[in-house]
Q: What sequence folds into this?
């Protein structure tokens, strides 16, 4: 159980970090929000991949790209709000 939680956090961090790299400019969202954007991107991108393909695991590269793009959108959304508010 602990390994599962650890792998979810690491996966969210990696997807979120890749999403932050896609968005230009400063992204002052912090460590935990990066993980949350990565987790949200993984869920949203995985859902889209599931709609496109019967077995998204067979198309892992396309699934990864969709997950990173979804995470990038979430990073852009969150960091854009913070820039306007600050």
A:
């Amino acid at each position: 159980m602990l390994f599962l939680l650890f792998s979810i956090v690491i996966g969210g961090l990696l997807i979120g970090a890749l999403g932050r790299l896609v968005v230009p400019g400063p992204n002052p969202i912090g460590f935990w929000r990066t993980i949350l954007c990565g987790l949200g991107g993984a869920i949203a991108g995985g859902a889209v991949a599931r709609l496109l393909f019967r077995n998204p695991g067979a198309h892992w590269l396309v699934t990864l790209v969709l997950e990173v793009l979804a995470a990038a959108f979430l990073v852009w959304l969150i960091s854009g709000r913070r820039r306007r508010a600050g």
